[in-house]
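Whiteboard transcription, Tuesday session. T.W. wrote the structure tokens on the left side:
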């Protein structure tokens, strides 16, 4: 059985504090109104309750342009669901897109027989990409060896070519042991 609330001693004078397990409806409605006021409202919120809904959210915005050995180019348009409070592309979205493009780029040179894992992701936020801006994301291999692969990712404005975000990802390669 679950308890509807739990009680914690608040101070030495014997007073107690009650913490409710249920969310207050006024807080929920205020939160929804806030999200709608900044342009983030989605009638299908239930679709985002799965374990990997971020993939669906990003894949709706990220389109592959070209794939070559050692080079991947993608295009994205900044829309309200992936922006921050100030109307720019959210920093975590930059990181998530950079990771996806880096993995795709690394896989163009590292065979499927090797496992890769991300050891480092460094991002320089040089400028902001505002709503409806189209970005070109270029991923290219800087170095690929037996045990390490380094990828550079650049986010540039489509119209001006201005560099807005610069990233570097380091992957460690590990061969699958043969028994």
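and on the right, the sequence the group agreed on:
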């Amino acid at each position: 059985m679950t308890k509807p609330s739990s009680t914690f001693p608040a101070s030495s004078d014997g007073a107690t504090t009650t913490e409710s397990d249920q969310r207050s409806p006024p807080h929920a409605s205020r939160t929804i109104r806030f999200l709608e006021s900044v342009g983030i409202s989605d009638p299908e919120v239930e679709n985002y309750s799965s374990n990997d809904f971020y993939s669906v959210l990003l894949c709706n915005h990220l389109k592959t342009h070209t794939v070559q050995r050692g080079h991947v180019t993608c295009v994205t348009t900044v829309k309200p669901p992936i922006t921050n409070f100030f109307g720019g592309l959210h920093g975590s979205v930059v990181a998530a897109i950079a990771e996806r493009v880096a993995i795709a780029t690394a896989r163009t040179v590292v065979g499927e027989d090797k496992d890769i894992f991300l050891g480092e992701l460094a991002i320089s936020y040089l400028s902001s990409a505002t709503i409806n801006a189209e970005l070109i994301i270029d991923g290219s291999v800087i170095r690929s060896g037996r045990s390490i692969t380094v990828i550079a990712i650049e986010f540039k404005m489509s119209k001006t070519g201005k560099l807005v975000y610069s990233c570097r990802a380091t992957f460690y390669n590990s061969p699958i042991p043969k028994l």
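Someone added at the bottom: The CA atoms of residues 51 and 166 lie 29 Å apart.
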